[in-house]
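Module 6 notes. Inverse folding takes a fixed backbone as the condition and produces residue identities as the prediction. Think of it as a translation problem where the source language is geometry and the target language is the twenty amino acids. Below is one complete input and output pair. Work through it position by position during the lab.
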């Protein structure tokens, strides 16, 4: 993995978990010191994060962590809802036995975790596994990005961290079962319902 990829993942996680908060200035020198990296990989990572709407680069002025408006929240869920059928179909058709074992381990880890922040990140890992099953790198990238934007919403309001509850874990088990059975119709429905329920919890929390 390139230094810029490592920097990207670490800075993105700082934003997702609200270590870097909306509207906060991103100081390259501070990131260089924190991550122990040079300026070039840091800048490459920030340019990538700007493309994905996590930061805003204001030329010759500053770099800021993006705010999230209600309009953007709605847009995020519209995209997740729209892409869920394609993700479901490809995951069910292309999954391997190894994929299923990985997914089941994700569920077990999630079920055994009580720390709310860690539970949210394990939920993230579960959905990234599902996205990887599509074997479509472009779709996987888009789904992971929208999922990360959703996860960020939880960390920005600590009350929302409890959104990943036992009912969600039951839904995860349904997703796993339908992928295993290659039951595309039921998988699409449960995925869509999952997105709608997650949105409802956030909007009305």
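Target side of the pair, the amino acids:
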């Amino acid at each position: 993995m390139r230094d810029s990829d490592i920097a990207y993942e670490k800075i993105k996680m700082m934003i997702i978990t609200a270590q870097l908060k909306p509207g906060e200035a991103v100081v390259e020198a501070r990131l260089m010191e924190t991550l122990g990296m040079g300026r070039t990989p840091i800048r490459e990572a920030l340019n990538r994060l700007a493309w994905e709407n996590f930061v805003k680069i204001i030329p010759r002025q500053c770099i800021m962590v993006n705010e999230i408006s209600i309009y953007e929240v709605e847009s995020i869920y519209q995209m997740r809802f729209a892409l869920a059928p394609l993700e479901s179909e490809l995951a069910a058709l292309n999954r391997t036995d190894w994929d299923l074992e990985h997914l089941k381990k994700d569920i077990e880890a999630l079920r055994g975790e009580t720390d709310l922040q860690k539970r949210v990140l394990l939920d993230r890992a579960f959905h990234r596994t599902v996205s990887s099953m599509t074997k479509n790198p472009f779709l996987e990238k888009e789904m992971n990005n929208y999922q990360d934007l959703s996860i960020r919403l939880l960390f920005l309001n600590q009350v929302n961290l409890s959104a990943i509850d036992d009912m969600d874990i039951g839904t995860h088990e349904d997703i796993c079962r339908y992928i295993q059975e290659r039951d595309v119709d039921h998988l699409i429905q449960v995925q869509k319902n999952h997105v709608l329920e997650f949105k409802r919890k956030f909007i009305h929390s």
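Reference fact for the lab report: The chain has a mean pLDDT of 89.
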